[in-house]
Amino acid sequence: MPTLYETLGISQHANAKQVREAYHKLAREYHPDVNTSQDAHDRMAEINVAFEVLSDPLRRNQYDSSLGYTTAERESRQRESSRPTAVEAEIYRRLRQHNTPIYGIGFEPATGRMVSSSFDNEIIWWDKKIEKPMRRHKFEGGVVNAISIPGDQRVVAAGSTEQILSCWTLGPERPNSWRQTPKSWVCSVAPSPDGKSLAYGTVNRSVHIARTSDGFNQVSTFSHEEAVTALAWRSDSGMLATGSADSTVRLWDPRSGREISVINRVISTVTSIAFSPNNKYLAIAAVDLSIRIFKLSDLSLIKTFYGHSRPIEAMAFHPRSWLLGTASRDGGVGLWDVRRGIGHGQIEASHQPISCIAFSPHGKYLAAGGLDKILRVWRLSASYE
């Protein structure tokens, strides 16, 4: 089977201009408007596929990796390219140490070490090279759906199943855990960035905030009209965003439970929410496959992105807040420049859903995991300004 490069009749070193020129030349020969034969129709379909992949820097890098082209070959081609891109992702690791689907990823703020969690409640701390497990721990009982890494040598994990809400704290001191049976089925959980609070939403429209230390319920609200399907904390733990099947996102003061604002321009069930680290943007993903970017200062809608073919499970901002990463049930990882309002393409990571995503503290790596139990890490190169 010919490679995509062979389909266009170019070498793997061809730059963006040469890819376009090759495509236009072939289109003039095989396009249905000028060539009505069935063979020409099939050939044009192959040409279109090749052009779609090779004209997209992210997809081209992934394709090159699958062919075994070296980093030096790709960098040589990039230097020759007349159209440099804002961000490129190159696969760095494919880690297969988890035995069950991966639902949580984070990085220690101080050391930059990656931490991941899976359906069987196993937490793995990775070495600095993100190559081998440095430490493992398995929590007893319940299911881990989300983790938070406060930066004080602690990991806070939480999850719910069969109406049982569980929370674990693991750090230098003795591990701590608690379990509760809420009155309503819990459908979303989110430990706060500082590790002190656990927010959870229920099918009965309620939002609760409990202490991670002992499970004491600090705040309860009932403002949503339908199930609470998504939660997100501001980076300083000073604000909570809740999304619902009622197509709204509400912003709260987590200390008092006071509602600050309501965003009602979503039009479908909210699946994921993310605050930017600089507290300038709020990203909201919904069942209609939209990614809406709001300015937090006045809640104005500044951009709506589309690109995934199935709902988005998780989102994360780059540490410098300009880039948004999205993880989808379509097995793809999307990259979006929220400052300029443009998409940087989609990485076809897996044939199964991707459930979690995170950037390293310095922004050099992007990690994602999901149902196929493979933890993928990409090395990012970007022009930030």
CATH class categorisation of the largest domain:
Mainly Beta
Major sheet description: 4 strands, antiparallel
The named CATH superfamily of the largest domain: YVTN repeat-like/Quinoprotein amine dehydrogenase
Quantity of strands, as a count: 28
Structural class: alpha+beta
Radius of gyration based on Cα positions: 22 Å
Unreliable sequence segments: 79-85
Strand content: 35-45%
- Helix count equals 5
| Overall 3D form | globular
CATH topology value of the largest domain: Methylamine Dehydrogenase, Chain H
Return the average pLDDT rounded to an integer. 90
> At CATH's second level, what is the architecture of the largest domain?
7 Propeller
Fold blueprint:
Blueprint: H1 4-8, H2 16-30, H3 38-54, H4 57-67, H5 71-80, E1 87-95, E2 102-107, E3 114-118, E4 122-126, E5 133-138, E6 146-148, E7 155-161, E8 164-170, E9 176-180, E10 186-191, E11 197-202, E12 207-211, E13 217-221, E14 228-233, E15 240-244, E16 249-252, E17 259-263, E18 270-275, E19 281-286, E20 291-295, E21 300-305, E22 312-317, E23 323-328, E24 332-337, E25 342-348, E26 354-359, E27 365-370, E28 375-382
Short account of what is shown:
With 385 residues, the protein is of the alpha+beta class.
Provide an overview of this structure.
The protein has 385 residues and is of the alpha+beta class. The chain folds into two domains: 4-85, DnaJ domain (Helix Hairpins, Orthogonal Bundle); 91-382, YVTN repeat-like/Quinoprotein amine dehydrogenase (Methylamine Dehydrogenase, Chain H). It contains five helices and 28 strands. The chain has helices spanning 4-8, 16-30, 38-54, 57-67, 71-80; strands at residues 87-95, 102-107, 114-118, 122-126, 133-138, 146-148, 155-161, 164-170, 176-180, 186-191, 197-202, 207-211, 217-221, 228-233, 240-244, 249-252, 259-263, 270-275, 281-286, 291-295, 300-305, 312-317, 323-328, 332-337, 342-348, 354-359, 365-370, 375-382. The strands form seven sheets. The protein has a four-stranded antiparallel β-sheet. β18 (270-275) and β19 (281-286) form a beta hairpin. α2 (16-30) runs antiparallel to α3 (38-54). The longest helix is centred in the first third of the chain and has 17 residues, at 38-54. The model is unreliable at 79-85 (pLDDT under 50).
